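Consider the following input, taken from an annotated entry for Inactive N-acetylated-alpha-linked acidic dipeptidase-like protein 2 isoform X1 (Balaenoptera musculus).
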Amino acid sequence: MGENEANLPNTALQGKKMAYQKVNADRRAPGHSQYLDNDDLQATALDLEWDMEKELEEPGFDQFQLDSAENQNLENSETTDLNLDPIQPATSPKGRFQRLQEESDYVTHYTRSAPKSNPCNFCRLLKIFCTAIILFISGILIGYYTHKNCSSNATSSGTLDLQLYQEILKTIQAEDIRKSFRNLVQLYKSENDIEISKKIKTQWTSLGLEDVQFVNYSVLLNLPGTSPSSVTLSSSDQCFHPNGQPCSEETRQHSSQDLLYSYAAYSASGTLKAEVIDVSYGNADDLNRIKKMKNVTNQIALLKLGKLPLLYKLSLLEKAGFGGVLLYIDPCDLPKTANLSYDTFMVSLNPGGDPSTPGYPSIDGSFRQNRLNLTSLLVQPISASLVAKLISSPKDRITYSACSPLELPNNEERIVSMQIQTVTKFETVTNVVGYLKGSTSPDRYIIVGSRHHTAYSYNGQEWASSTAIITAFIRALMLRVKRGWRPDRTIVFCSWGGTAFGNIGSYEWGEDFKKVLQKNVVAYVSLHSPVSGNSSLYSVASPSLQQLVAEKNNFNCSRRGQCPETNISSVQMQDDADYFINHLGVPAVRFTYEDIKALEGPSFLSEGFFPKRATKIEEMDPFFNLHETITKLSGEVILQIANEPVLPFNALDIALEVQNSLKGDQPNTPQLLALASRLRESAELFQSDEMRPANDPKERAPIRVRMLNEVLQDMEKSFLVQRAPPGFYRNILYHLDGKTSQFSILLEAWKHCKSLASNETLQEALSEVLNSINAAQVYFKAGLDVFESVLVGKN
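Applying the prediction step yields:
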């Protein structure tokens, strides 16, 4: 892609400069798309023009004077600054693209000395007065009908867009999604992931999608050994597999894939015999309580999944001195309909991408680091039924209507021996990527991500839902494209591989194209797990996109006549959106159906991959109506982001989210609160003064819209912190769960420092948050200065 820069005037602030430029691609790597390296993408350099008051020029008149309603004089000066203080932000509930009430109209006066002796002075003055009255009335009429027509045109344009979206989406049918889902499931039973990737590529190409390609990476995978792991009770010498079944020679020789893949990828391997210590959920308070009672060095922790990121809890256990971990999910944390007491699951200890190339892509010639395991702990996921055996608990304790959590008595000692065998080797992970090139802004991308089955992983089939939905949307979209329509921005469809091992496919692709994606990606729409339940529609969205998502939710429920309370939050997602949120600062959104109990229970349970069968998915959504709803909701958001002249992002909502995140009992420095207040002021001014012309097509000067969109798409990049605890999002706008609104890194640092003599960790977290808020405030202020300097330059 050739370099293309739009040079803008310097801001009025010394040392601050807002640069808007296209992305450089220094080279074209084999397999890279032509749309990521297109030499034809050129920025249109258009002059920014503003409608100004015109001066009246009449022959024989000496001068004109413009007085404002406040009798302020407009003076000609090359350094005239705009007085922005009186401008108040829009107070509409929507808050987006709302015009302000204009300042009082300027009154035009003129002065001229009349000759002292002229008999026709009165007649001349009368003619001039009558002429002025006629011109004034004519101007009002012209202005009224012009404004009426413009408003009508703007409304008509918006209505046409909505009609277009509905025409595209109405072709999406539940029955078609069900057929696609069943075909994928049948394909999976007979072929490996390479064949599945080929089928996806062939299908997308046949639908008309452009430049569909494979993007392969050779990555380091940690795989289970030839026989399943085991846990042996020293008191009885009984050996059990992770699902609670007794060990036997037959089981070892004919182990099912589900049993083999009940393991923690990238865990340490070997054998450890030690005492089992119940650490509950493994937070800082739990560990401090345990360490006061027992010596935990090289012992085995009995750990519940949930409430905090697994990687963070393992880091605390490793720091405390534990040698092993038995990981399980308490049945009380699951919906009553989910009977998983005997089910095994898989977890990955990989924070993201190929472990052998951390931070850079796994392309030919890259240096490979020797990282056979990512922790010194031996980690083994086990079923709840095995936990019950370890603590000598009767089976019926987990079937009571009032569920009793599993706990190991503190006064009892349990010695076990755990054995873990894994194999580490390089394998190929395949992504399928296709493009629908935009018509007016082809260098701006909306990425739509699904996932497909990866060999060597658990036997789940949720990926078939994800793939069926993205294919259904592509089919509907391409039907319209064949009739001559295209979106304004490019839509990139991605089916990721290697998700179960730590989002490897998406991470490697993101690292490979990082320089291009940093400048060009506008938003990420995730189709990772569309149907995980059937009782509640749950949406996760960046703060800047929550308003758009709420509008789509309300519109969807009004069509069905059912409008429950909108459930939208900015919480961490365990899916392939990870890289785009945490390393690129891209706004993201995901719609999914969940069980209400799952939403009310602990967060991060989805870090465990259960082998969900196709029959289970069809039981949850027998007619695939939920799949259809997710496809249409996601599709409408994609179309609106891809097609609206001004990106439908809300700047003010980010500032409000920051202020809400500073509420609560956590300590906040005065600097944090003051910065948050200034950020809100800048965001209000930016949204009301710079985004308001979007309502009027006359004022949509292309260069102005381009500048505005570039500010909007980069708003969240300021909130990427340099250091975050393991498993925590670097993007601090996202919370650990929907129950807490505080900044996650501040909340955890505050809890952590309570037990320490030093508050260094808290001070570091405060500094990270402070710098992020300051960077965002400077960013909005610089955006305002750019628009102001352009306006002054035009004057």
